[in-house]
From TrEMBL:
<keyword id="KW-0472">Membrane</keyword>
<feature type="region of interest" description="Disordered">
    <location>
        <begin position="1"/>
        <end position="23"/>
    </location>
</feature>
<feature type="compositionally biased region" description="Polar residues">
    <location>
        <begin position="1"/>
        <end position="16"/>
    </location>
</feature>
<keyword id="KW-1133">Transmembrane helix</keyword>
<feature type="transmembrane region" description="Helical">
    <location>
        <begin position="31"/>
        <end position="53"/>
    </location>
</feature>
<protein>
    <submittedName>
        <fullName>Uncharacterized protein</fullName>
    </submittedName>
</protein>
<keyword id="KW-0812">Transmembrane</keyword>
């Protein structure tokens, strides 16, 4: 006699996947934020050096 096979779960539907477009959007936002913070840091360093608050 053959027993019933246990039901198999579809792991694709149980895990949450983000679409490629969503991942690209997040990457673009992180890249833009990183560039903006880098530019602001450089401007602040240049301004403080110009006014003599720090020396390089």
């Amino acid at each position: 006699m053959k027993t019933e096979n246990p039901p198999t779960q579809n792991t694709e539907s149980t895990t949450q996947h983000k679409s490629k477009d969503e991942l690209n959007q997040e990457t673009a936002v992180e890249f833009s934020l990183g560039i903006a913070l880098g530019v602001i840091t450089i401007i602040l360093a240049a301004a403080t050096a110009y006014f003599g608050l720090i020396r390089f």
